[in-house]
Amino acid sequence: MLKYPKEKEESISKVLFTNSFNYEKIEYKVIFQIFYTLLTYSPQILSFSLVSCPNLNMKTLEFVLFLIKNLKNVKILRLEGVNLNDQSMQIICEEIKDHKSLKALMLSKNQLASISGSYLAGLISDNKNINILYLD
Questions:
Q1: DSSP 8-state assignment for residue 90
Q2: What is the 8-class DSSP label of residue 131?
Q3: What's the confidence (pLDDT) of residue 51?
Q4: Pair type for strands 76-80 and 47-51
Q5: For residue range 107-127, what is the model confidence (pLDDT) as tens digits?
Q6: Which residues lie below 8 Å from residue 76, measured CB to CB, with a gap of 6+?
Q7: Residue 27 φ then ψ, to 5°
Q8: CB atoms within 10 A of CB 79
Q9: What pLDDT sits at residue 70?
């Protein structure tokens, strides 16, 4: 779950969602409020993780990618065990290719085929800042 700071000055450096966060049953108003809060504190967020959320759907992925594009200081994007496929990988690579601070992309435990390798190669060619790619 997401922990909010008590005061704006308190730093948030990591945001981690785990499988205790149920995407299927949460209302979009709640998702919007979470993302609005994250964007409010965006200068402090350096890492964004979705881990072991096998029910991640395309609409939620779109929200996440919108957020990542607007979190200008994120250095690590971790999407592990979220059931990514080749279609979602193509969208991810297209959306983050111009992200200036992103250094590491962690994508283990997903359903990626060889075509995703082509998308990732294009991403690394387009975005020279990404120097860590973790696939498992």
A1: H
A2: -
A3: 82
A4: parallel
A5: 999 988 899 999 999 999 999
A6: 46, 47, 48, 49, 102, 103, 104, 106
A7: -80, 150
A8: 25
A9: 83
Amino acid identity for residue 135 in this structure? L
Residue 30: predicted pLDDT: 63
Residue type, 30: V
Residue 7 to residue 67: CA distance in whole angstroms: 21
| H helices present in 75-127, as ranges | 86-96, 114-126
Here the tokens at position 79 are: 């999407």
Is the pLDDT at 105 greater than 80? The verdict is yes
Contact 48, 82 (CB under 8 A): no
| Nearest partner of 59 among 22, 23, 112, 17, judged by Cα | 23
CA distance 114 to 86: 8
- Full-prediction pTM beyond 0.85? no
Q: Following DSSP, what letter does each residue of 23-76 receive, concatenated?
A: TTTS-HHHHHHHHHHHHHTGGG--EEEEES-TT--HHHHHHHHHHHHH-TT--E
* Count of alpha carbons within 13 angstroms of residue 116, beta-carbon side: 16
Q: Nearest 5°: phi and psi at 117?
A: -60, -40
